Amino acid sequence: MSALALAGGAVLGATFGAVAVLRGSKPLHPVGVLRHGTLSIRPGAASTGVPLLDEPGEHECLVRLSRATGLPVPLPDIHGAAIRLDAQGDPVDLLFAGTGQGRLTRHVLVPRRAVGRGALTTLIPLRSAHGPLLLGLFPDPGEDAEPGAFTVRISRPGGPWQSRGRLSLGATVTGEADPPLRFDTVLHPVPGLDHYPTERALREPAYAAARRGWPVEAETGSVGQ
């Protein structure tokens, strides 16, 4: 792990913590909509080493769609999708942001007016037993504003996208329009997926500072709710 990554993580941590205190909410993606969802996995021939992606099945989940900076519609923003699933009773999270989908642009954030106008990816490859892996959500064509479903795809760095299933969105979660649910891929990794050390050094201080700057006493994060 490089000293540069550690220093960058410290800077991000201080920045995220300060923004969380000033806003009294999440430093990024402050406002969103939480919906019920179903993740349907239809694995391909190639194994990823990630049980969630390699075993066919239907998984209930929570999906939060949001805008990174909170700019009002119709101004362009970086759209995000956060997914929470249960893994043997424990929460696991996946985070996606609006990017391109080409070999290079899939690693570049792209502001858009609506979430349905382009791909959302994990931006940086995650570490799996079979090497780096990128996940993506691709909205159905013609659903610009808020798609009812996404195609789930995976790729290796620079490789083609391969379909892995569907993410279908259901009704908005009842109660608060945007309950204080905190998604965190460092604390709640998907079994078989992890961050590489450099990325972890950047993310961990930022997430920890955001938690300190915007403490949440109780989360309504159960998928079954």
Largest sheet: number of strands, sense, barrel closure: 8 strands, antiparallel, barrel
Number of helices: 3
Q: What's the CATH architecture?
A: Beta Barrel
Give me the count of strands.
Answer: 9
Nearest-integer average pLDDT: 80
Q: Compute the gyration radius: what is it?
A: 17 Å
CATH class: Mainly Beta
Shape: globular
Low-confidence stretches: 1-25
Under CATH, the topology can be stated as Catalase HpII,  Chain A, domain 1
Number of domains: 1
Helix and strand arrangement:
Blueprint: H1 3-23, E1 32-41, H2 51-54, E2 57-67, E3 79-87, E4 90-98, E5 120-121, E6 126-128, E7 131-139, E8 149-155, E9 162-172, H3 197-213
Antiparallel strand pairs: 1-2, 1-9, 2-3, 3-4, 4-5, 5-7, 6-7, 7-8, 8-9
Please provide a written account of the structure.
The protein is of the alpha+beta class. It has one domain: Catalase HpII,  Chain A, domain 1, CATH 2.40.180. The chain is built from 3 helices and 9 strands; from the N terminus they run αβαββββββββα. Strands 1-2-3-4-5-7-8-9 form an 8-stranded antiparallel barrel. α1 (3-23) packs parallel to α3 (197-213). The N and C termini lie far apart (40 Å).
